[in-house]
Amino acid sequence: MSTTSKTTVPEEHPIAPFLRMDRMPHIWCPTCGIGTIVKCFATALDESDIDLDKTAIVSGIGCTGRVAGYMNLDAFHSTHGRAIPFATGLKLGRPELQVVVFSGDGDLSGIGGNHFIHAARRNMDILVILVNNFIYGMTGGQNAPTTPLTARSSTMPFGNYERPFNLPHLAQSCGASFVARWTCLHIRRLTKCIRMALRHKGFRFIEVIAPCSTLYARLNRLGSGLDLMRFYHDEAEIRHGADTREVDIGFQDRIICGNFVDEERPTFLDMMHSHYEGVLGDRYMPMGPEGGWIHD
Amino acid sequence: MRYWRKPLDIDQVTVPHGRVVIIADRCKGCGFCVEYCPKDVLVMSEDFNRKGYHPPEVVKDGECVNCNLCEMICPDFAIFCVAADDEEAAAAIAARSASDEEGQGGPN
Amino acid sequence: MAAGCRFVAGYPITPSTEVVERISQRFPMIGGTFIQMEDELASMAAVAGGAWTGTKCMTVTSGPGFSLMMENIGLATMMETPCVVVNVQRGGPSTGLPTMVGQADMMQARWGSHGDYELIALCPQSPQEAFDLTIDAFNLSETWRVPVMFMMDECVGHMTEKVVIPPADEIDVVPRVLSKKKPGEYLPYAVNGRPVPEFVRAGDGYRFHTTGLTHDERGYPVMSAECQETNVHRLMDKIRLNAADIIRIEEEDVEGADVVVVAYGITARVARMGIELARAEGVKVGFLRLIVVWPFPEERIRELAKKVKAFVVPEINYGQMVLEVERCAGGQAPAILVPHGGGGVHDPADICQAIVEAAR
After folding, report:
1. CA B90, B96, B99, B104 torsion: positive or negative?
2. Among A49, C118, C183, C191, which residue has the fewest nearby CB atoms (within 10 Å)?
């Protein structure tokens, strides 16, 4: 017997103001973890007291790439792999924006790998939430740069023999100043991590492991997304500050989560401003935080 | 909920109460809420929603502690909790145990 | 800079690198930001994103980089993002002749990205035009909310000539105009009978959504043939139906001419020499210079085709704009190509010879 009297109880989900409810229900599969991560992100925005009008979200292509389309923020659905440079353009064109990139593992570390490493190197002030489901989901389950060894995918039908990325290590070694990994089961810690990241300045990278039921789980006979969540429950280990060289993920192996890197370091714009001020002195005229829009 | 030892201040802690609200037509029957509710308040129902999925239903009315885990973990924004006061929760528990007794005293 | 551009994302490539080098020196003094991105794909993506902050944006490249930018140029046409892409053409294909002239990207400027779209391309013939037409390129981009391809070539790019820069108040600049509607009323792609939707900036509270997917007025993706028709057809008509306002050509002695030479860029200057030589031999030659290359001046060519014996099209490629001339002439007058593979400019005598033969 289910609940409620409609007179005292709200009819709509409390997170609705952060979402484009006119596009619900969303396209993600049953037991897909992306919706949970979006909920955590929206909750973090809610709890963070940041100016949502000045927050922009950019997604690439893929299942996670659809996130921008469901968020009630200035949202951009750009081309495959190019969410990070697109976000860079937004940030540099109007530095007061808080720019979030929300995209998948194939999009950001495959085709977008080059942009990922350079934005991390520059400590570009953007928050990157990478949803890692170990596969290219939207296009039918192809091998991704994060697919663990021996896992099956549609382009590696006999099992993957390519060594995958260790993304937190990649981000840290390129110069990211905030690196964390959680699974979508760690709802509260992930929300808290996103809140911390929203306050942090610089290249912030949060990898979130999520189940892909229709492709990854099915092709590897792992059950449904719920079975994968149970797996995360059993095999995730929280090790804050772990050495990122040791957090690689094997097939159905332990997943090390935690906040690995949290450093204060000057961002790309900080370095640009302080350098030009030093070298050019009074001749330097920086673009203001409101951006480069010229108007009377 | 299982404790590995009894908390020393268990008498002083006020347990909150909540009521679960389910937006059935948005549910995709993933089962996360059922699996992870700490009070096991939910089960997957036998009903169908408009899209053919089985949404969850509350079976332990009154035992929800408003922890919001279901609200956080649902990928489809189809379930959330609101605070309920103690009397409501007590009444719901009483109503449930009454109907359980009736059920036991049924056709036998 | 005179046009109000304040964000440039670029990547070095010969022979365009001097532009970004100069920009990197000047932008810190004028409140602009220049970033050298990691590749041309990133440069174009950054420009496509930066434009949504209300800032006028530009990127600069040459042939190989132009090829890399194509996907995001398509994104800019679909999102209707104003921006300018400068291509200082060099010999191609592939790595080609990095330090030497070519004009072989003209078709690519129009058809380079996949799918149906229309955009605007301009072609300067001198450093003075490189100044003046860049301002026009930005203005056209703002007016029509379309990426504008600025097709320079290595010769014009490396030329040194006097450039007169007028005082700022004499330069006509079309500013970025923002919608006056309130959030909630505003729809990103609603046109209400006008050719171009209204623009807003990210960060002003409009909470809009835009995508490279086929979308409706709200900017939400809709996967249907009807939406494709509404969306993409409007993008095509935006330029096609307003071509008369966009097209710009320069004509000399076309009335009564037997042969009309059609040329653009550096070849226009060489062609004038060839025309003089031909006139000295008694041929009545007219000259039509393409300033705005795309949209192509179809009507004018069609008109002239009825009156002239032939068109002569010298270009530093093996036949690109000549195909357009031929198409528009509709068989009424032949279009004769004077090709050049690149690496140098035509010999005016060759152009003269082609003109003289065409006149027979």
Report:
1. negative
2. A49
Beta-bridge partner residues of A131: A104, A208
| DSSP-based three-state secondary structure for A58 | strand
Please name the chains neighbouring C, where neighbouring means 3+ C-beta pairs under 8 angstroms: A
Summarize pLDDT for A47-95 with one digit per residue, the tens. 998 999 999 999 999 999 999 999 999 999 999 999 999 999 999 999 9
For C64-101, the pLDDT digits (tens) are 999 999 999 999 999 999 999 999 999 989 999 999 99
The minimum CA-CA distance between B8 and chain A, rounded to whole Å, is 25
Q: Does C166 fall in a domain? A: yes
pLDDT for residue B10 = 81
Query: Which residue range(s) make up the domain with C285?
Result: 252-359
Does the beta carbon of A27 lie under 8 angstroms from any beta carbon of chain B? Answer: no
Residue range C209-258, pLDDT digits in tens: 999 999 999 999 999 999 999 999 999 999 999 999 999 999 999 999 99
- What's the gap in Å between the CA of A187 and the closest CA on chain C? 26
List, as ranges, residues 157-186 from A with C-beta within 8 Å of B.
185
**Interface contact flag, A28 B73, Cβ < 8 Å:** no
Chain A residue numbers touching B45 (CB-CB < 8 A): 2
B19 vs A contacts (CB less than 8 Å) = 3-4, 9
Q: Which residue of B has its CA nearest to A34?
A: B75
CATH number of the domain residue C143 falls in:
3.40.50.970
Query: Does B101 have pLDDT greater than 80?
Result: no
Tokens of A255: 């997943």
Which one-letter amino acid corresponds to residue B87? E
Angle among Cα C115, C119, C120 to the nearest 5 degrees reads: 155
Residues C250-286: tens digit of each pLDDT = 999 999 999 999 999 999 999 999 999 999 999 999 9
Q: Whole domain around residue B42: which residue ranges?
A: 17-104
To the nearest whole Å, the CA of A2 is away from the closest chain B CA by 5
pLDDT at C319: 95
Interface contact A226, partner B, CB < 8 A: yes
Predicted local confidence at residue B14, as pLDDT: 85
Report field, pTM of the whole predicted structure over 0.95? no
Tally of CB atoms within 10 A around A181: 30
Whether C contacts A, i.e. 3 or more CB pairs less than 8 A apart, is yes
Task: Give alpha helix (H) positions in chain A.
Answer: 34-48, 67-70, 83-93, 105, 113-121, 167-174, 187-199, 218-219, 225-235, 268-280
Say how many CB pairs under 8 Å bridge A and C: 182
Amino acid at C6: R
Domains belonging to chain A, first-starting first, are 18-283 (3.40.50.970)
ipTM of this complex: 0.93
CA atoms within 13 A on the CB side of A184: 29
Per-residue pLDDT band at A176 (split at 50, 70, 90): very high
Largest CA distance in chain C: 69
